[in-house]
Write a structure and sequence with these properties.
Length: 286
């Protein structure tokens, strides 16, 4: 049995769809704090269970009979999120889970400008010390993080994003889901760390050129003000820990922390990671 936390998020949904396409519906248990949000998956035949990170009993019940657990990193302030991850790892160990797959993030080092790097660094360390077999999957920034900026540029002709001068090897949810499904369903991944990146590292100018080529008209790149974006996030109702975290990600991007390109998507899926051009074509010409 494979259990997946946070099955209602974008990555969780992409992985669930992939596992379903592989005929594994009856072998997958999806968990969420509110199982009602998994009603559609339950109707398809997936097992669903309540798993509240603050409710040890619900974690124990959700993980009974599970062989492989996919722990998708949650969303909360750093200290809370770290403790949530530790609670899940502890519950997995108590219930005899054979292997934990954790979705980490690229460059979780002490030198990272991202304040969220500490979450992944501490979770990785705790997981390695747990005694449970593990696979750590360090995902780069998702290409979908660019969607709002690309769609605005489609109308305005200006691709504006903080940290635009730094190159990032953006990766699609499709590629990450395919790679993680391979990790979940095939052997040979015990105590391994994979870096899931796109096929190329691009800065804002290069992405604007690609978008312009797809649209057939010029698109100009602009390194946007972090302060302006922080204000827009706050106006949209983002909690302060999210605003600070996102700004730190943009700072890390601008400094080139996410520019390394890894072959691991291809090694795990048997095909090259999706190019930015292909991703943009899917986005603007669905």
């Amino acid at each position: 049995m494979i259990a997946i936390t946070a099955g209602t998020g974008n990555l969780g949904q992409a992985i669930v769809e992939r596992l379903g396409d592989c005929g594994l519906i009856g072998q997958v248990r999806l968990t969420a704090r509110d199982p009602k949000r998994l009603r559609a998956a339950a109707e398809e035949g997936f097992q669903v269970a309540k798993a509240d990170y603050t409710d040890i009993g619900s974690l124990d019940q959700a993980l009974q009979g599970v062989e492989v657990l996919l722990l998708i990193s949650g969303t909360a302030p750093n200290e809370i999120r770290i403790q949530q991850h530790k609670s899940v790892i502890d519950a997995a160990k108590r219930n005899g889970v054979s292997r934990i797959v954790y979705t980490s993030f690229i460059n979780p080092s002490t030198r990272s400008r991202s304040i969220w790097a500490a979450i992944h660094r501490e979770t990785e360390t705790y997981l390695r010390q747990s005694g449970v077999k593990f696979t750590i999957v360090r995902n780069n920034q998702y290409a979908s993080n660019l969607d709002q900026f690309l769609l605005r540029a489609q109308d305005s002709g200006i691709f504006a994003i903080p940290g635009a001068k730094g190159r990032v090897a953006y990766v699609s949810h499709r590629d990450v889901a395919a790679a993680i499904c391979s990790v979940l369903t095939t052997a040979g991944h015990d105590n391994r760390i994979y870096q899931l990146t796109g096929a190329e590292a691009l800065n804002g100018l290069e992405i604007a050129e690609i978008l312009g080529g797809v649209l057939g008209r010029p698109v100009r790149a602009m390194d946007a003000s972090p302060d302006e974006f922080a204000a827009s996030f706050r106006e949209a109702g983002f909690p302060e820990f999210m605003v600070e975290g996102l700004l730190s990600i943009y700072a890390a991007s601008g400094a080139g922390e996410y520019q390394s390109v890894s072959p691991d998507v291809g090694l795990l899926t048997g095909r090259r990671a999706e190019s930015m051009r292909t991703y943009i074509q899917r986005l603007v010409w669905p």
